[in-house]
């Protein structure tokens, strides 16, 4: 089994979920409460990675992060390194690729929070930001958790984007799905089978854990989900 | 200048109805003002505008010398800064917080001070022993009291109650109605209550604003508005069912004499009420007979002479509101209505059996 690739994938997925939590929560909250009439355009952009072939997404990311592009040049100036075929470049690609998997459950959870609870909090003299942290976020917790788990699992299995942006550098960008592909290409079915089985088991455990957690919270929190 | 809540504003929903309110209530003496009207009349919108949860498009709201809202000057004080307590229809308790957590939610300061205040409120509203429960683990009546405690914890200057009893079942509603009235009369806070129930309006309110179609139609003392509706449209609203305040003046041979204004009614005594007791007199419209053309001999103990105030068609039936000292509603078929040639102003007698006069302890 390719433990280096497995650990790299887990590390990538964990970082992706963390970044998506920090970036996705404000975006999702804005999507849930904004009355802006052109909001649907933003929603369409957020959902784009769901329908776009990973290779297409990867191709554009590759263009965007190359040292010739403004973004890539900025990163080169700031760190002295380039993004393509690096872990950081891969992380950026993963965040974009899994964006809807985090933001959509987040937004749905925020929308499901009873508006009157928020207004009750305001009437009790609690500011908007504090209301968000004391009422909205705790009540949206099952959905936030679902988004984190989904983006984690989605990142573990990504393949096309990784090949386009990260390439196949062992320990740097060679993730578990690329590793399995390589083993199959080398007709090393036993190794591919072992790694695949591990990934299957891991995914199942993570999902079962999430759904189990939601079932429990749902019964005692009748107003959420 | 008197310390008053002065509202004069209009809220226009895009492509929808407009709700206007214009009234003033004293804010330095405790009083309960009822906003009464059918559902969809704009009562809740008025309450939400006062709380700062809705932004009126025109006009202003002043509280004492503070300006809460002034559309012309672009002033709109957020709900956080108004120190107004708003009790939502379904109470809107935070489901993830315990009873204790809910009551203390709006409190600030050191933990010891907050805990003291929570304990004080829990005791005041009889919630001891429930502090660690979640809202889903207590009864509807208890939830209402938790919501009240939470609202009062921050020492509000104005109390707004939106249909405070509608989330309860009928049995606990009549029980909690009295309890809520007693409680409100002990508070030193001016209160506005939204309701569409007549009994609720009569029991809870001192003063009443009749709201319909997004406008305030009448403003007066509750008993007066019910007894003497200002015009036809108010009579139609308050005459949907008959509930009027009265007083028992005599009891003999299983019958009670009840005085409603200048009218005396005879009611059957079921041994629960005493002489001199204040009561709500309720008469179902289905149990009132109408008669024209001289007295006839009937078994009905109550013959009330009056004039037709309004006719409200309801499918094959007509709700006839008769002014017989107080507005009394009778539900008759439109066929009967035609036969008796009923029209506003026509004299008519209402016949009500003693057993159809229901008395609710007031």
Could you please describe the fold and organization of this structure?
The complex is a heterodimer of chains A (225) and B (362). Chain A has eleven helices and no strands. Chain A has 225 residues and is mainly alpha-helical. Chain A has a single domain, classed as MetI-like fold (Orthogonal Bundle). The radius of gyration of chain A is 20 Å and the shape is globular. The mean pLDDT of chain B is 87. Chain B has nine helices and 21 strands. By secondary structure, chain B is of the alpha+beta class. In chain B, strands 7-8-9-3-10-11 form a six-stranded mixed sheet, sandwiched between helices. A five-stranded antiparallel sheet of chain B has the order 2-1-4-5-6, covered by helices on one side. In chain B, strand 5 (66-70) and strand 6 (75-76) form a beta hairpin. Chain B has two domains: 4-238, Rossmann fold, CATH 3.40.50.300; 242-361, RNA polymerase II/Efflux pump adaptor protein, barrel-sandwich hybrid domain (OB fold (Dihydrolipoamide Acetyltransferase, E2P)), CATH 2.40.50.100. Chains A and B meet through helix 6 and helix 7 of A and strand 7 and helix 4 of B.
Please give a quick description of this structure:
The complex is a heterodimer of chains A (225) and B (362). Chain A has 225 residues and is mostly helical. Chain A has helices spanning 3-33, 39-51, 54-65, 70-79, 87-112, 115-123, 128-139, 141-156, 160-165, 176-185, 189-220.
């Amino acid at each position: 089994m390719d433990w280096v690739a497995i650990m790299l994938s887990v590390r990538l997925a964990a970082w992706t979920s963390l970044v998506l939590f920090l970036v996705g929560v404000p975006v999702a909250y804005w999507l849930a409460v904004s009355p802006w009439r052109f909001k649907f355009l933003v929603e369409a952009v957020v959902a784009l990675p769901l329908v776009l072939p990973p290779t297409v997404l990867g191709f554009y990311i590759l263009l965007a992060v190359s040292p010739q592009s403004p973004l890539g040049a900025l990163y080169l100036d700031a760190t002295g390194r380039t993004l393509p075929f690096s872990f950081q470049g891969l992380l950026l690609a993963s965040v974009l690729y899994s964006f809807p998997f985090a933001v959509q459950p987040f937004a749905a959870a925020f929308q499901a929070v009873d508006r009157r609870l928020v207004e009750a909090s305001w009437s009790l003299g609690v500011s908007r930001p504090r209301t968000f942290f004391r009422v909205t976020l705790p009540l949206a917790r099952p959905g936030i958790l679902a988004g984190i788990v989904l983006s984690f699992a989605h990142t573990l299995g990504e393949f096309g984007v990784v090949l386009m942006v990260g390439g196949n550098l062992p320990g740097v960008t060679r993730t578990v799905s690329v590793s399995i592909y390589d083993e199959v290409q080398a007709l090393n079915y036993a190794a591919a089978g072992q790694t695949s089985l591990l990934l299957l088991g891991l995914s199942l455990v993570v999902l079962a854990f999430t759904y189990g957690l939601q079932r429990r919270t749902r019964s005692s929190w009748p107003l959420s989900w | 200048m008197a310390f008053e809540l002065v509202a004069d504003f209009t809220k226009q929903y895009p492509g929808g109805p407009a709700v206007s309110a214009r009234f003033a209530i004293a804010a330095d003496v405790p009083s309960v003002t009822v906003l009464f009207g059918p559902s969809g009349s704009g009562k809740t919108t008025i309450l939400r505008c006062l709380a700062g949860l809705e932004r009126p498009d025109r006009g202003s709201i002043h509280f004492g010398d503070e300006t809460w809202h002034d559309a012309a000057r672009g002033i709109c004080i957020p709900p956080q800064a108004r120190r107004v307590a708003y009790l939502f229809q379904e109470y809107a308790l935070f489901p993830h917080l315990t009873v204790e957590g809910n009551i203390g939610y709006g409190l600030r300061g050191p933990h010891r001070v907050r805990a003291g205040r929570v304990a004080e409120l829990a005791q005041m509203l009889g919630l001891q022993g429930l502090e660690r429960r979640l809202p889903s683990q207590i009864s509807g009546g208890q939830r209402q009291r938790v919501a009240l405690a939470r609202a009062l914890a921050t020492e509000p200057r104005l109390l707004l109650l939106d249909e405070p009893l509608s989330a309860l079942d009928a049995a606990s509603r009549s029980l909690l109605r009295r309890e809520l009235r007693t409680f409100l009369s002990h508070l030193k806070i001016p209160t506005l209550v939204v309701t569409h129930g007549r009994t609720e309006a009569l029991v809870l309110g001192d003063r009443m604003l009749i709201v319909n179609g997004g406008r305030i139609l009448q403003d007066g003392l509750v008993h007066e508005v019910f007894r003497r509706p200002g015009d036809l449209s108010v009579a139609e609203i308050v005459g949907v069912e008959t509930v009027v305040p009265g007083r028992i003046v005599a009891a003999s041979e299983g019958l009670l004499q009840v005085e409603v204004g200048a009218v005396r009614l005879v009611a059957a005594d079921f041994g629960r009420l005493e002489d001199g007791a204040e009561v709500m007199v309720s008469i179902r419209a289905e149990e009132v007979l109408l008669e024209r053309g001289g007295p006839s001999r009937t078994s009905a103990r109550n013959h009330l002479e009056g004039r037709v105030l309004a006719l409200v068609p309801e499918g094959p039936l007509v709700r006839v509101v008769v002014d017989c000292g107080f507005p009394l509603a009778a539900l008759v078929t439109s066929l009967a209505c035609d036969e008796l040639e009923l029209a506003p102003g026509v004299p008519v007698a209402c016949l009500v059996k003693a057993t159809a006069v229901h008395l609710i302890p007031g």
